[in-house]
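Ticket #4471: structure output looks truncated?

Reporter: J.K.
Steps to reproduce: submitted the chain below (310 residues) through the standard prediction queue, then opened the result file.
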Amino acid sequence: MSFEYDLIILGGGVAGMTSAIYAARANLKVLILDENSCGGLVNWTKVVENMPSYKKIGGMELVERIQEQVEALGVDVEEAVCIDAMDLSGELKTIEADDEIYTARAVIVATGRKPVPLEVAGECEQVHFCAICDGAAYVGRRVLVVGGGNSGFDEAIALLDQGVSELTLVEKMDRFFAAQSAQDELVARANATVRHSVEVVAVTYSDKLETVTLRNLATGEEETSEFDGIFVFMGQQPGTEVFRGQLDLDEHGYIITDENLGTSLSGVFAAGDVRPKKYRQITTAMADGTVAALEAERFIHSVGSRRVES
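Returned output as attached by the reporter:
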């Protein structure tokens, strides 16, 4: 079947949902397509303490409240979508997903960023990227955390707070990059071990994780240990691979935009973490979503919307 909209938003994170709110309030017919669930990386944030109007709120709760507002405005939301093909170059943008065809005059790309994978882990099901999402399954068990930045240390502390019995954190660089306060807190935990200059070189698994081989980069020595789960926090990369060849990307894969968040294609805008930017916060994603929606609305009205009433 074919469905026609004024605006399609690819990505249901904070930037995408903010765009949807502004566009729906402008009386546009709006669709959000997300390959996972709405909320993006905010779902993985245990507590948000820098959101105006909230002294403290859980990431998942914040996402739920935003999504409730989006859906109350009549925005169509499709989650767990697999995009098969798209053509963003024409006057009418076309997206094929799960045997459906969606068209719109304008598109906002807000696909955010994805965790950098641990390549040697293959398809092991006991590899995770979110302590708050998956940590409960490892109460009383032994886990490995890969990554010595703020996320690695913060998530490691969260795992211990959930009841992990023993935790090892490794970082392949010769120092840790997390805030010193987080480092001090984790080191003080009796059941936590932290090591830099160590990388994961092999993971063995069948129906579950069996062993992990670590290499000391200073000495070259390797050791193999048993773990029940691995949590990976090695940074993020933009979710833009599907747009390569259609939109101009920078050397790191981020979508290049002008000051109004327009991309290299007319009628296509980008918002949030898919753009090259200095600060990546919930509030800056919301700001991008606002600008992209206002510019998309202006563009749609300038070319004449072929809106189909539901």
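Triage note (M.O.): checked the attachment and the full token line is present. The longest strand covers residues 100-109.
Status: closed, working as intended.
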